[in-house]
Amino acid sequence: MIDGTIPRECVYREFEGDPGPCPRCGGPLQSHPATYLVTTRRGRKNKDSFLLGNDMGWFCAHCPTVVINPEEVSEYLLHGKPEWNVGTELAVLGIVDLDTIPEEKRDVPLGEDDNPIPLVEFTNISDETALRRMTDPSKAVPRQRIPPAHDGGRFEERYEDILQNIEFGIVQVYHGHPEMTDWEALTAVEALVRAYNAEAKGRQATPPSLVPLAQEVYGSVKMMCEWRLGRETPFREEGEPVDIPVESISLDEIVACLKRVRKSINRWTRTGGRQGYLTFVSQFVA
User: Quick one: 145 and 180 in the same domain?
Assistant: First the structure.
């Protein structure tokens, strides 16, 4: 059992699946649910702060360290409600000790004057450079871009419509087959990554051998990819072509977008189980 009341050092590390050993002592890391206070800013201005409750933190069994993937945090924020004012940088300030909230104040919003947030702050200044804490200039915590810059701008911001097209291709199949799991989506996306990577290198890709549901996802997502590559026109259910002009992108770009979706599937499966990704993304894709 992880003791969330112990002050810990937070280390940002991008990873898929298992983050590996503790970066400070080499000990084993264990995923454990907790509630975190995350604050954001844009430029010099503070934006909204959020309480995120999930198992994104990996705690060391031997020293007071927690490893957090900033891309996982940013995905929660980027898929949030339209009224959220999310900045371009984030900082995970610490763990919120919900057990210390008095019973009579459980219904009072956290952060009110008579019900302050019981924050167990992270102790480190930064994992790379000293950056002033957004909400208290006297302290400092790690800060991270949302997500890391890509070609002069946020990846999700630049390719938002393409990522949504890929996700639409996945969710469209899921709506017709509610028994579908993240695994079918993942194997289809991985097969497309291999196919487009092979084409980019001038090689003939071997046709994938997929189970029927994964094959259906493969075809649905491939149609979207071919459309964004400028090589195919998608059709509506009634058979009419979709007349939406788009700027064609390169093979490298479509592969990068597929890889980003693949990372999202892995992350949400680990968080929510065999349909964690599908349940999450279907809230935002019609």
Answer: no
